[in-house]
């Protein structure tokens, strides 16, 4: 019964195209003499509007008030400092002086206020996260008053969608005006972004003259582009190519544990999936170790919950295991008929729809593995691959399950994931999860300023999520990239928020 057909799935999906020669000299080193690189990623971008998309921050166009370092600590960025005197409801934020937007206009508190006002106007998710009631601007000092105490507001201001732009400029989708080391030259949605150095950047002129971002969802194509010299930095090359790339002395590879989790979403608007026993049945049908070893080619660790075990807000979990026997037991508890190892609903075969998407190629494979396991129990799983899964699950209710991936702790804090995934109106709560005990715990967390108390409340919240199987967390994938050996001062960001910085150089 175990893993029938999995070998065929993996062979078909993970075969790497023939390798191109590794001696291709970067085309940016010849010709004009200008320093230029091409970065190829798997993040398709339909807009540069930083309030709707991460690309403008990743490409060094726009910046946020606060940033996160590689130790997951908050650092000042456009904000010089911040403080609260009333447990997190009133925040006084000092904006750095002598910073200008790309159009030469000064960055002051009024400009930041107008940017944040636009932010919560165009993004319902950020409106929900920031909970801004009122803002006041005076010179370089911005005062934010929230609807309720929000001790974690500085960490919310790390989010790329809170990036500051000149809101008086109207073409944010094509040419957002920011404060970063690079400014956009041209943008073709889903294809290509050309950038040039912003000469008056406040934190020191960028080392590169120009940069190009290109996008390709095909991991094999990204790998070949690096090997042929068509790209200098490739974000997430084909997962099974990592060892081969390490053998090429013209290429450097970087692999780090990511803050990302691959998971199975349940649409709890479906009456069957609103039943804990059905969710547990599917949870036992997931072989996490096989997923990490085979589908992820060893570039992942088994996930027992949303967060890495090293975090101080990670609790002890109920042990996860692959067990067809327990799957069938929980289907029986949910009122299904189990006959000769097959699951029936009111005497008929059971069928569900699972959504997935291609730009993380392992997710369709996880869906296929689940489909293969379910088929052996007489359960039909119909796989639908969509281009924009966030848009689809937000607008449509005709899905039951979804393979999904997200950064669960991008700022070293549990509140982002808990609020966005389990609160009403949360940006990643398309299944409309509503658990009163969990919601109450998250509310308490949001009001708590002391870190130790916050960690205790976060552990309590995650324990509820675990016991109720509100999601099935599958693996924590490694984050990996490869780049030409002549690229200097580039590093793989754990948060995945920062790709092109002022320090990136080529020799």
TrEMBL record:
Residues 73-426 form the Solute-binding protein family domain. Pfam families: SBP_bac_5. Residues 1-20 form the signal peptide. The keyword Coiled coil does not apply. InterPro entries: NikA (IPR050035), Peptide/Ni-bd (IPR030678), SBP_5 (IPR039424), SBP_5_dom (IPR000914). Belongs to the bacterial solute-binding protein 5 family. PANTHER family: OLIGOPEPTIDE-BINDING PROTEIN APPA, PERIPLASMIC BINDING COMPONENT OF ABC TRANSPORTER. NCBIfam families: Opp5A_nikA. This is Nickel ABC transporter substrate-binding protein. The lineage of its organism: Bacteria, Bacillati, Bacillota, Bacilli, Bacillales. The gene is nikA.
